[in-house]
Amino acid sequence: MLRILTVLHTMPNVKSYRTLCFENILDYLKTKSDVHMTWLVYMPDKLNVSLQNDSNITILDIHGFKNAVEVIQTVKPDIIWVAPTLNLPDYAFALAGKFLKIPVVGELVNELFIKSDQFDAIKTYISQFFQSSVPTDAATDKKQFMKRGRFFLYKYLFLLRTQKAVKMNTLKILEDFFTIVKAYLTVMKHLHNPKFAVNLHFVESQTLVESLVRNGFERSSLVVSGIPMYDKVFQKLQELQKSSLKQNDDKIHILLLTHAMYEHGYWTRGQRDRLVKEVVSEAVKYSDEMSLTVKIHPSSEILSEYQHLVNPIDPKIPIHQKGDILDFIFACDIVLAYSTESALFYALVLGKPVIILNFFGLEHDLFLERGLVYECKETSSLISLIKQGVKSNVVNRKKLDDFIEEFLYKLDGRSSERIGNTLLDLSDNYKKKSQ
Length: 435
Hints:
Layout: E1 2-8, H1 17-29, E2 35-41, E3 57-61, H2 68-75, E4 79-81, H3 88-99, E5 104-108, H4 119-129, H5 147-165, H6 170-186, E6 200-203, H7 206-215, E7 222-224, H8 233-241, E8 252-257, H9 269-285, E9 290-295, H10 303-310, E10 319-320, H11 325-331, E11 334-337, H12 342-349, E12 354-357, H13 366-369, E13 374-376, H14 382-391, H15 397-407, H16 415-434
Parallel strand pairs: 1-2, 1-4, 2-3, 4-5, 5-6, 6-7, 8-9, 8-11, 9-10, 11-12, 12-13
Helix pairs in contact: 1-16, 3-5
């Protein structure tokens, strides 16, 4: 039996980068071994996780534990999987896993864009601290004064109790605190900080390996694997290409694919709101020849906020949070996005033109630099770019293939296999040492 413990900011039934990756990894592992998966969920409110029907899955609530050491001693995992980035619960479990000498692994992906101005980020962090809700709230969750700030403090106290449990001295705890603060203020320039490194990192591409080594990561801890999330995508793409989801009217069907730029501190709320209102208002002017659909992030954005922005302009515009992103992309003629993100790769493979709405000076966007997408810097040029993109897509096969080779390693459907085999080896070695 292979026992894996990971942490998650939503319930595991919500589609997210980590759950999509684990769907494929677990499918492979189950062909080789019995697997038990434990999800430690951290959300502001206590969860009702008492009713669990699957004997191979356990869902735990962070509120039931004082620190990460207590969780690990309860679960007794063979492998701990965390994000080796600036995320307080993940960092707490990395510290506890190392202290208890249990293998800690995580994934590292390419930085898709950079923003150099940190002042807006600081303002956003301050304003977010006083928000009465968090992006993962369900519609029924109660709002609370300074809920997001209280939740941040809760997560930091969980980390602090973990630091004490692993016998970290006071001076080192203070040093950690200031390092974390600095990391928050520079995360948009330096996403990959070796401060949060784990025992073994599954890396998206060889190009990223060299960047990580320059940042201070140990080369021996970096395993190029590709991303499991893409393993089943090509099968799905083939199914979609044979389906009848594509709409057959004469309108240009536009998909506004949003991204948690405000929620993660890249934009202020005012910037996000301005962009959405301007884009929607511009599209509505051409409603006789264009149709707009909005798809927001399944877990990191709040549906009611987008409804508040879009409905006063045109309440008939559909806004979706749930659903398979591939279905939405396939059904549209062109995609509008805040920035490059993994979902845009699906659009490119499907031959859909993409426009990056770069109203606020994001820099070093990989898709823009490689000439794979159009760039819109102001609303006045949006409609002409949409018409241009639909008429003649900027992407050609060679550009796309070159990008895949450099940044996505092997799209051969075997990333889960590579990661799964490594996890099994790590588990075997850990069990032998523990005997």
